[in-house]
Description:
Elements: H1 3-10, E1 29-34, H2 38-46, E2 52-58, E3 62-64, H3 69-72, E4 83-85, E5 97-106, E6 111-116, E7 123-127, E8 130-133, E9 138-139, H4 147-150, E10 152-153, H5 157-173, H6 181-187, E11 189-193, H7 197-217, E12 226-230, H8 241-252, E13 257-260, E14 264-267, E15 271-274, E16 279-281, E17 284-287, E18 291-292, H9 295-299, E19 310-312, E20 326-328, E21 333-335, H10 344-358, E22 373-378, E23 381-386, E24 389-393, H11 394-407, H12 411-427
Parallel strand pairs: 1-2, 1-8, 2-5, 8-20, 10-17, 11-12, 11-17, 12-13, 19-21
Antiparallel strand pairs: 3-4, 5-6, 6-7, 9-18, 14-15, 15-16, 22-23, 23-24
Amino acid sequence: xxxxxxxxxxxxxxxxxxxxxxxxxxxxxxxxxxxxxxxxxxxxxxxxxxxxxxxxxxxxxxxxxxxxxxxxxxxxxxxxxxxxxxxxxxxxxxxxxxxxxxxxxxxxxxxxxxxxxxxxxxxxxxxxxxxxxxxxxxxxxxxxxxxxxxxxxxxxxxxxxxxxxxxxxxxxxxxxxxxxxxxxxxxxxxxxxxxxxxxxxxxxxxxxxxxxxxxxxxxxxxxxxxxxxxxxxxxxxxxxxxxxxxxxxxxxxxxxxxxxxxxxxxxxxxxxxxxxxxxxxxxxxxxxxxxxxxxxxxxxxxxxxxxxxxxxxxxxxxxxxxxxxxxxxxxxxxxxxxxxxxxxxxxxxxxxxxxxxxxxxxxxxxxxxxxxxxxxxxxxxxxxxxxxxxxxxxxxxxxxxxxxxxxxxxxxxxxxxxxxxxxxxxxxxxxxxxx
Length: 435
């Protein structure tokens, strides 16, 4: 098959649709990918670049392996050990990656308006033949007063760095003379809101740090640091009931780890107020309670579900797009009549699916089958909810580490992460603080 025939197969013209094209002199058409998360990065790695001029637009120039993000907040794993530079995938032109935000989309004319991250007053437009929206989502505050101002989120490396800095700041400050006992208690109580995998794993990593490193380096404070996990329903609600109960029982056995079943009504600079009337003095609040759409997704005039996600058909086309050239995947999108969980597995599989669809290798509707869920609960124990297999304890922790190690984006990361784990075991976690 000739090169031109391959292109026709990848982009068949459909009657009644606009056939505007921005093909370059090479005959390749332009595919623009918004975002470098699980979905966008998967598409970028799997797309046949011989057939497309691929342009990626994202406010970050790396792919983040999110399952290990919680580990970086206390230094079990270092930040750069779980990120892979997007440019390592190799672009045809160095200018095919833009460190920018998408601000507006003109679907009819197939034009994307962008703004530079590095120089915000610099705006420009990008034409496209195919556009894939993979911008993810932001944390949902549910309009609880004070969350935006006082809580920390855990979605990206800058979030983890802020949390790590605040943890070390608080424990160092608690050692200063002149503080009252109530002020020390407030500084050393760390509150996590949300009992999903992110909240539970962050709590587990934090408690490991308290038991292993606070006891070693800050031994005078080892019995004063507390972790409080607030969840209005059940922790790890998407896991099998037996695994949920196991995780809950293990957490409750820990002396300075408290589970509170309530909802949050307000967050202040030094306190979390609960619906049961209780106030929790604290020095850190990490908010991990669901997702909400980004500002770019909110600005799009297309059909959305009640959560604000872009609705697509079963081929991931955006419903309401007059050109049939705009797609959406991952946390920012939802398939009409086939809602899927907002997890990395789904987005990664969708990226692979679109790469095949664009080249005529897969013309069926998108389908997804879960490979299972893993969560770390601390003290070298985990829970694994895999089809037909339910595991818990140290064997599940070993599976958690083994599975994620093989899924890291490159051999460089697969070398760095085990080195970080080894350093943590032999020498403890790095407690240096950087502003």
